[in-house]
């Protein structure tokens, strides 16, 4: 097709061919999905969380389906940075897309150790700092719920790998998400992504026990979308750096909503488990929307929310 609209975006120094990424922990190390789709068509993919040593994660049961999503308490099982670099990165870096490594830790030093090892790795387009996981006892969310600790870990990781664009991933389990966003922005974050999962609970009424061995888990999927969209809108208005919208995105219409709310890119999580090709359908849907609305560049859509007058009541769930 002649005159296709430009879908290119820049997320804090990470150049992407389109604004659609995969969300950490829902796309393995990337290669697992290569038999379902051409990974090079993605704007970027984000690896599962990588720690300084291998982690075995939580005891099962670790996931349970809910009415409009799922609860997980995987506990960030991963192979650790050494095995990731030797065994996975050499293959992943061959793919013609931006590869973003999600980093997790229990202490600031853990995050710093991983960042230092990634600093000189070719084929790592950026780092996503996970300070928002609700499923580990120490680290994760305990950083992301406190503006001072969020700032401290952001600054330490930026210092450890100043050459790699840094996306800081925020938790929705806070009262004032904009305050945390401003704290990480002023501490060196190049972009912000949100939301991670919302803490939830499921109980088996026959045994009266929690369904998950970890007791609580993180809620994701369509149920969280309106909360995620509201938070992305709030944060995009508060900060100057780009925002990656995440949470319940299941079809291109959801993604368009996040872009209108101010997200420069979107990441798709739980929907990959239902349809492993969903990201490609979302890329195509956004492009069609731009053409239909005579927009030549996706940036015309980003942050284009009209708030000066109320619109007619429209459909709130557009997924076909
Ligand atoms: C099974 C599972 C594992 C996840 N693992 C990670 C992880 O390792 N690091 C991280 O930052 N987020 C992780 N997340 C959170 C997702 O990246 C995403 O922020 C969240 O699920 C909301 O998006 P969604 O509703 O599209 O799934 C995980 C989510 C799920 C469902």
How would you describe this structure to a colleague?
With 320 residues, the protein is α/β, with parallel strands linked by helices. The protein has one domain: Aldolase class I (TIM Barrel, Alpha-Beta Barrel). It is 29% helix and 19% strand. Strands 3-16-15-10-9-8-7-4 form an 8-stranded parallel sheet. A 4-stranded antiparallel sheet has the order 5-6-14-11, with no helix packed on it. Helix 2 (108-119) links the parallel strand 7 and strand 8 (126-130). The protein is globular and about 50 Å long. 50% of the residues are buried. The model has no long low-confidence stretch (mean pLDDT 94). The structure holds flavin mononucleotide. The site of flavin mononucleotide (FMN) has 26 residues, from loops.
Low-confidence stretches: none
Helix content: 25-40%
Instruction: Name the beta content range.
Output: 15-25%
Got a strand count? 16
- CATH class categorisation: Alpha Beta
Please name the defining characteristics of this protein.
single chain; 320 residues; alpha/beta; TIM Barrel; 8-stranded parallel beta sheet; 4-stranded antiparallel beta sheet; 9 helices; 16 strands; 29% helix; globular; binds flavin mononucleotide
């Amino acid at each position: 097709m002649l005159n296709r609209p430009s879908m290119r975006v820049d997320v804090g120094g990470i150049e992407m061919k389109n604004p659609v990424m995969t969300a950490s922990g829902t796309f393995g190390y990337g290669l697992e999905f290569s038999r379902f789709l051409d990974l090079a068509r993605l704007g970027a993919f984000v690896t599962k969380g990588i720690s300084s040593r291998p982690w075995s994660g939580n005891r099962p049961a670790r996931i349970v389906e809910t009415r409009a999503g799922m609860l997980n308490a995987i506990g960030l099982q991963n192979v650790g940075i050494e095995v990731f670099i030797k065994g996975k990165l050499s293959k992943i870096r061959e793919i013609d897309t931006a590869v973003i490594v999600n980093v997790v830790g229990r202490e600031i030093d853990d995050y710093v150790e991983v960042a230092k090892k990634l600093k000189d790795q070719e084929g790592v387009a950026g780092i996503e700092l996970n300070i928002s996981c609700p499923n580990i006892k120490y680290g994760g969310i305990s950083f992301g719920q406190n503006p001072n600790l969020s700032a401290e870990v952001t600054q330490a990781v930026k210092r450890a790998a100043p050459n790699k664009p840094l996306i800081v991933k925020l938790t929705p389990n806070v009262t004032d998400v904009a305050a945390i966003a401003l704290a990480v922005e002023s501490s060196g974050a190049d972009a912000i992504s949100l939301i991670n999962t919302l803490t939830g609970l499921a109980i088996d009424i026959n045994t009266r026990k929690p369904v998950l061995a970890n007791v609580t888990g993180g809620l994701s999927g369509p149920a969280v979308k309106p909360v995620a969209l509201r938070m992305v809108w709030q944060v995009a208005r508060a900060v100057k750096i780009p925002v990656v919208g995440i949470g319940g995105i299941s079809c291109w219409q959801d993604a368009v909503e996040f872009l209108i709310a101010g997200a420069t890119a979107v990441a798709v999580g739980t929907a990959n488990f239902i349809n492993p090709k969903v990201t490609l359908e979302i890329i195509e849907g956004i492009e069609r929307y731009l053409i239909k609305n005579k927009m030549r560049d996706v940036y015309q859509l980003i942050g284009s929310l009209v708030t000066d007058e109320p619109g007619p009541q429209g459909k709130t769930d557009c997924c076909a």
